[in-house]
Structures are given as structure tokens and as C-alpha cells.
Amino acid sequence: MTVRNHFAILKNLRNIKEAGVSSEHMKKLRRSFLDPSWEKAMTVPIDFIKAQKYMPEFSREIETAMLSSCKGFPKLPGFTIFIVDVSGSMGAPMSGKSEFNRMEAAAAMTVLAAEMCEHISVYATAGSDSYRKHQTAKINPLRGFALSEKILEAQHRLGGGGIFTRQALEYVKEHEKETPDRIVVFSDSQDCDWENSRKPNPFGKYNYIVDVSNHQHGINYKGVWTAEVSSWSEGFLKYIAASEQCLN
Predict the structure, then answer these.
(1) Owning domain of residue 36
(2) What is the DSSP letter of 214?
């Protein structure tokens, strides 16, 4: 089966399944995810995660296509630390009609970014609003759907409170022996440390916060980060790669 429109395949899996197409057609569809053309598709992980949600029996094939697609994005050299906000507010939907929430978008972006980096550490963080204290945990640097699932599972372990960005960064710094080339925080900018005038103190060579909330007016971290990126698409990776080239 020659793949001509990769996005259409992902988008229509639900309809294909509900239509009850023939077993022969399903075999062709399954094989389509192994087509080498996925490497040039530039399709983002959240599209594959949606597809896997609708057709879990194709999980292996969909993941293979997703990892192939990630090869087309710019590479980031060196050591990268990802910190993913799994606080309560990250459970909000991306938009009024969206089937996915901010946390799922952040997990999908982490899957993509992890494929682009030479060496990574991944942390999930939330906390207790009552005690004004973070809860942060390191996640095994898995690939694909397994990494996304571990990030989403972390919400249940780390509490439903807010994100305490400064505390989370201090925790990560204590547990990492190597200074990172970059730190990337995926969040919705609902920083509870900020309410107590505790500015984040990131310690990477370059430091980024990626706001997945689509807020028009987030917290003004002026002077804290190398850049604040308002995006939940693959564009943030292109931006980081380009900005570091200019700064070097």
C-alpha cells in the first residue's frame, strides 16, 4: 500500500474502524504504517497518539510510523533535561472542542523532543497546594508511547496541586551530576512558586519554558529563560535549534 497522505490515514482511523471495512483492507492499512515514506511525513506525535487511542490493536505499527516520522525533525546535540508539568490545571482541554488535554499535548511534545536529543533526562512535577511544596520524580527515558504513558501516570503519584517551578528545578539540580546543554519545561504557566515571588532559577546553558495552554497572557518570566515558547506543535523544536545556532 503506497502512502500518499499520511495525516489522512491517522485522522480517519476511527471512521475506518467504525465502518467495518474488510479484513483484507485492514491488513493493507496495517502494512501502510511500515512504509518508509513516514520518515519524511513530519507528522507530530499527538496525531499518532490520537490514532493509537482509536485503534489500539495497531499500536506497534502506529508507533513504528511515529518514530520514523520523528527522524525528519532537527536534532539537538548534547544533554537535555525535560521537566513536564503534571499538575491539576494540565488536565484542562486544549480547547473547547478538543478531545485532548494539556498534559497529553505536553507528553506528546516530550516524545518528539526526546527523539531529537542525543542524551536526555525526564522529570514529571506537580505538588501540594496546601503545603506549598513540589513533588517531582524522574521518569525512565523510554521511547514512544511508553514514555507518554509514564508521564501521564505520574499525575496520580505526584498529586493534583500546582507546579512549583523553582522547587522542581532545585530538585532536578540536586539529582543530576552533569550540567545540561538545555532545560525544557512543558507547562501551562500556572506557577505556584511565582505567587510567593520565588522566581525559577534554571541552570542549563540554555533554558526554555514551553507553554502548552494557549494563554494570551501567561506569567512574565522576563530575564529568567533563554526563551518562552507559546506552542504545542513541532515548531518549538525548530525555534530552539535556530535560536541556539544564532547564540553560538
Answers:
(1) 6-70
(2) -
